């Protein structure tokens, strides 16, 4: 391939919050009296990231790759699912440039755990932590998220394939003036 291709991917997910489950974001457990209900471990952010990278690569979505009807994915570690999905993305020749995410919930606060969440995702996705950003928001008390019944996550990513400028690692490309 002699042409560089870049593609954007978008992922979103929502999980119900229930007592007795861990509250997981990007493989990091946050202290909370409730956690995400789900067939897998319910890690809503990691699920959104999986859909973003699969979508950008044109490789389907999380439901097709890891069907909830299959017992194999019951209580699955979502970080391992991300590792599998990213392996397919890499096999198809794609590299991740950056990932930007929003998590919306009333509690717990995301900020104290942001660095750990970003590092956890960066380790699996093989890019510097600075190429991943995770923002925490509330829903101002509105809807299922606002009343603490659910948590939502959005993720957008950029993948690239093909020749790159020499001697420039991913995410450190020459800046174009605006
Ligand atoms: Mg999910």
Note down, in words, how this protein is organized.
The protein is α+β, with helices and mostly antiparallel strands and 178 residues long. It has a single domain (5-161), classed as 60s Ribosomal Protein L30, Chain: A. The chain is 27% helix and 29% strand. The protein has five helices and seven strands; from the N terminus they run ββββαααβαβαβ. It has helices at residues 44-57, 62-65, 78-91, 114-125, 143-146, and strands spanning 5-19, 23-25, 28-30, 34-36, 95-104, 132-137, 150-161. A five-stranded mixed sheet has the order 4-1-7-5-6. A hairpin with a 2-residue loop joins strand 2 and strand 3. Helix 1 packs parallel to helix 3 (78-91). Magnesium ion binds at residues 13, 15, 38, 44, 47.
């Amino acid at each position: 391939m002699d042409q560089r291709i870049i593609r954007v991917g978008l992922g979103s997910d929502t999980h119900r919050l229930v007592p007795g489950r861990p509250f997981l974001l990007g493989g990091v457990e946050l202290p909370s009296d409730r956690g995400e209900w789900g067939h897998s471990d319910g890690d809503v952010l990691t699920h959104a990231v999986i859909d973003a990278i699969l979508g950008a690569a044109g490789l389907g979505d999380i439901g097709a790759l890891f069907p909830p009807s299959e017992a194999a994915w019951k209580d699955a570690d979502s970080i391992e699912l991300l590792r599998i999905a990213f392996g397919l993305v890499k096999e198809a020749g794609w590299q991740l440039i950056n990932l930007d995410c929003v998590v919306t919930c009333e509690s717990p606060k995301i900020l104290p755990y942001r660095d750990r969440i970003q590092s956890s995702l960066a380790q699996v996705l093989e890019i510097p932590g600075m190429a991943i950003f995770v923002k925490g928001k509330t829903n101002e008390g509105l809807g299922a998220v606002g009343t603490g019944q659910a948590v939502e996550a959005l993720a957008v990513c950029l993948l690239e394939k093909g020749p790159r400028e020499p001697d420039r690692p991913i995410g450190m490309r020459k800046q174009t003036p605006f």
